[in-house]
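Example record

The entry below shows one chain as it appears in the dataset: sequence first, then C-alpha cells.
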Amino acid sequence: MSGLVLDASVTLCWLFESQSTPYTDGVLDRIALGWEALTSGVWPLEVANVLVVSERRALIKPAQSAAFVEVLRQLPIRAETAAPDRVFREVLETSRRFRLSAYDASYLEVAMRSSLPLATVDGPLRKAARAAGVSLL
C-alpha cells in the first residue's frame, strides 16, 4: 500500500467544485483506493474552520458541511496529534527555515519525518517541500 501526506488545501478543493482540478481529484481517487493519507493534527481544524466560515458566508449549507465531513470520515485519513515538544522544536524550526506559517510547516514536517510525498496545491508549501527534498505527489 502506498501513502501520502495530505494538506487542507487539497482537501477543500473536493468541497468546492470550482476549485477541483485533475490533480486534486487524483489525490482523492488514490485515497479512495486505499492509499493511506497521513496529515497534520491541524488538518481537521483547518477543514472545520473553512466549513463554518463558508456556512456563515452562505457559500454552503450546514447539510453540505455534514455530508462533506461524512465523506472525509469514510476515507483512510489519519491526523497525527502533535506533541507540544515536536511543535515547539521541529515545526517551529521548519516554519522559520522555510518561511511558512506554523500550520503549513506542520504538514511539511510530517512529510519530512514520514518520507511520504506531500499532496498540496499551496504554492509556498510546494516550494518549501522542493527545497527540503520532499517529494510532491
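Notes for this example: The chain has a mean pLDDT of 95. Helices lie at 8-15, 22-32, 43-56, 62-74, 84-98, 102-114, 123-132.
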